[in-house]
Amino acid sequence: MPFFARASSVCFRLFFKTFYRNTIIFEERPLPTKGVIIAANHISFLDPPLISGSWNGELYFFARRSLFENPFLGLLLRHLNTVPVGMGPDAIKTSYKLLSEGKSIVIFPEGTRSESGELKPFRPGVGLIAQHTGAPIIPTYIFGTHEIWPKEKRFPHLFGKRCGCIFGSPLFARPGEDAESITERVFEEVRALRYLHESN
Q: End-to-end CA distance of the chain, in Å?
């Protein structure tokens, strides 16, 4: 892992542990750390750094191309393993390339942040990627970041909140399974992880 990305991951882990008592749960150990798809719910701008600081391995993220038009922000994002992509086919093609190189990617199948914090329907892109690459999907449930930094707030709360990530067991595409069915299974697994969190 490049030095800057590794150092950032360590800083993110310390930040979330210090300010928000970040809880990291792995349903299964050991999990594969290379060439996997982390498919997570999306409830806050804080979700990418939270996952980066919670996962044991190098991760690649996607962001819209317009964010890279600012030279400073673009340079920072690239050092944080963030790849500029367009919509639809461009993101899918980039995912194939990264996974074929043994790199792990993070996908938010809802496509945008949830304003309420509740799970929204998943788009079929995650199933399509798994169908064509055979890469394992790690269903992931993020909690707490919506309360820390909801969509309608300009700045996050710094104290008094908690957050965490629950990484589920690997899920694989079945022979002949279509993208929609794979995506539905991922959604159900993430929803099960939410129930697991709420029951504890």
A: 35
